[in-house]
Structure formats: structure tokens, C-alpha cells
Amino acid sequence: MLRRIMEPSFTIQFDLTLKNALMDFYQMKKHQLIVPSKLETVNDAYVEKQISQILYQIS
User: Fold this and answer.
1) What angle do CA 22, 24, 25 make, to 5 degrees?
2) What was the pLDDT predicted at 52?
């Protein structure tokens, strides 16, 4: 799935930025793996910072 998200044609096809696509993927996985009652306790800022750093490194 991540390989597909990283392809430029994917982001163009769905009118997304790479950061938005990765954050959506993270949100989807978070909802799959974490009990709904604990979702509010997850700090998304850390993951968003990590994604930003990764995107900076590959650009």
C-alpha cells in the first residue's frame, strides 16, 4: 500500500498531496489497531512531524 501511495500517479489521480495521503493512511491504520475508547489519547503531532521529516528527506 505504501508503495502505491508514493507513486506520483496515485496522488494525481486522487488529487492528494503526498503528505495528505500518508496522513490518511496513518489515520486508517490507527483506527484499525487502537481501541476506539483510546483513540483520543494518541498524539498525532509526533507522527505528523515524522512524516514531514521523511518527505523533506526524499525531496
Assistant:
1) 65
2) 95
User: What is the distance, to the nearest Å, from the Cα of residue 41 to the centroid of all Cα atoms in its chain?
Assistant: 18
Q: Which three cell numbers stand for residue 22?
A: 500518508
What is the pLDDT, as a whole number, of residue 2?
78
- Cβ-contact 26, 51 below 8 angstroms: yes
The residue to which cell 500517479 is assigned: 9
| Tally of CB atoms within 10 A around 54 | 13
Burial of 2 (0-12, 13-18, 19+ CB in 10 A): exposed
Which residue numbers in the chain have pLDDT < 70? none
Q: Is 36 exposed, middle or buried (0-12, 13-18, 19+ CB in 10 A)?
A: exposed
